[in-house]
Amino acid sequence: MRWSEFFIKTQRYPPADEESANAKLLAQGGFIGKLASGIYTFLPLGWRVLNKIENIVREEMSLAGGAELLMPSLHPKEIWTVTGRWDSLDILFRLKTNSGSEYALGPTHEEVLYALLAHHVKSYKDLPFSLYQIQTKFRNEPRAKSGLLRGREFRMKDLYSFHESDEDRDLYYETIKKTYIKIFSRLGLNAILTEAPGGTFSERSHEFQVIAEAGEDTIYYCVKCNLAVNKEIAAGDSTCRKCGGATEEAKAIEVGNIFPLKEKYARDFNLVFKNKSGANQLVSAGCYGLGTSRVMGAIVEVAHDEQGIIWPENIAPFKAELITLGSNGSANVSKEGERIYKKMLANGIDVLYDDRREAGAGEKFKDADLIGVPRRVVISAETMKKKKLEIKKRNGKKMELVSEEKLFKTLGAKK
Amino acid sequence: MRWSEFFIKTQRYPPADEESANAKLLAQGGFIGKLASGIYTFLPLGWRVLNKIENIVREEMSLAGGAELLMPSLHPKEIWTVTGRWDSLDILFRLKTNSGSEYALGPTHEEVLYALLAHHVKSYKDLPFSLYQIQTKFRNEPRAKSGLLRGREFRMKDLYSFHESDEDRDLYYETIKKTYIKIFSRLGLNAILTEAPGGTFSERSHEFQVIAEAGEDTIYYCVKCNLAVNKEIAAGDSTCRKCGGATEEAKAIEVGNIFPLKEKYARDFNLVFKNKSGANQLVSAGCYGLGTSRVMGAIVEVAHDEQGIIWPENIAPFKAELITLGSNGSANVSKEGERIYKKMLANGIDVLYDDRREAGAGEKFKDADLIGVPRRVVISAETMKKKKLEIKKRNGKKMELVSEEKLFKTLGAKK
Fold it and tell me: Which of these, B157, B50, B39, lies nearest to A69 by C-alpha position?
């Protein structure tokens, strides 16, 4: 992709009205644009990162047997009164039309899904199954803040699984635990499996927490065996209940939350199936959330320096950025830039080519560090004289002069 | 994909509360589920079709130079008062929170985009560019009806282009006209380019209309030269104003609408750039909509028979459906089914395998016709005896017995 064709609009300074690192750097780097408190546009660069995150999540959900669907955001009041959450959920956006119809904007989709399943689940032969979506959600947060960490409109993956028995659901719950660990590993994010309260539905749940100062949660984790517990349910003593090791307190960002719904909503919606004995039985369910836009914010919180973002390899907007220097009067450099760029594309390398003619070397280097592509490749009159190209990792200091052949090998050319 | 793993829930009868062919067949076939009037869930089968439609649109938008982004759905009232549309747009969903914040739910995104661009467009060097998104939209339709043809919540692609001059914009407008023609052709949909009124912004616009009884528009088209005009601006006589040929009247579904926005919103948001003479000038723009979920509905309206849907090749949920018959006591057929299914996957064939053990031949054939996959492949004790497989096009009557080799060749095996 050429810089000039991708609407990349970096700013000289971070926005004055943001405090968190992710909000500042993502806005300055042209990844997001703020529309209102907690409401952001994903600009092409940011949308590209979010897509990479969501595609990794999608692949792993599919491997875990989930079928993808898309439920609506506009929910008639009736289904929310069935569960009592029309009144009890304070973050629910509610609206009433002139003709008197009332709707909630979906912050989560148990109500929609259970209403739907009443038509489709009849027998134990219909179970188990799991369904998920990756979708925009709405929550009327009183204090939307911290950029992508707590928004009024945000992106989320929500998976729901349905089972004959709690035992079967518990087995699947363990599968998804492993799937989440794999997802966060692929995303380049160290997310700690943490015991957490179960909310209104069940006694226990698990969160995936990323240690970061910007986090709103507090966790205690054992330095010896890694057991982690959310402060809300921690006993408060300073030793690990499992191994007796010392525990440390840390601020953390919750990027995922999985919990057994048990029969709670099945009871509300009378979601029953005929079991093997022919009797009606309530469906047992689990639900598994993962905030994809929050993951994007959390990664920036833990992976940046004073110059900008340092994207992990798998979700960087591009794998490499190609820069040509000294375009004024150096037609040869431009020509060489075009040749290398086209060769990169032909070799399947995911490259951003900073082809701006009006930008100087300083601006191009500053922007490259800001947007945080993992590898920077430079072509200048000097490198051409030496018949080499300069390559540098974003997360490193060493610049290397390499041959064209070595460069393509390093970048993992497919051909 | 196996039938048993994709949450395909066909119904014996179409829903009683729907009238249009698309609403009936898509619900009966397990593509969509109705939550409320004009509000549908895309079930895995339907989501798969919609994704194929949207990916074709995405590819062509990208080829036309568009960069993809995602704008929010929750719009603060302030930006809608700038254009006066907070009050004038009757289909706008408006909501007010307890703390007094007012929002609109995005039916279109000029307001959001122009507010964003005020930060990013400064000089003629920043122009031209084009941005698009594929997104869920909201319209408070007084009479939501006809399934996916007119919804309160629906999917749409909206592209916006920005230019130094009307001349440059007109050139791009012609490019997008050609792009749309290509898109509809790839989607297997005969959409007629139709002259239409310009709304509040400009004197002219163009619609892409699909002739169908379920359509809400009326167009006049020339049987000789194909010139088509929306009834709203037609002069009313029965001869073509271009070639003098006879015109015919037809009901039609509008699946796309492109029009020049000119300087309308640039004036509202003071979106100016420094032109080559250094003077401030208003940005000229065009906007280009395409209803992706409506396209899905329109295709069903024009491509079905009494048995079900007949999906065009490119957007069918699967290219082929594999059916094994007589599973009771015929372990050989099941085994052969598994072998052929795995070979299809290994050969990159997009196949749905109806592996249901409890379903009989009649049910499997009925469901195959209902969900409308282009090619049906059958394995039975009989075909095995002949060392052949049976293949039949959904849109044809002839069943053919072919060798395994011929089958894979017909299905376009990649290996």
Answer: B50
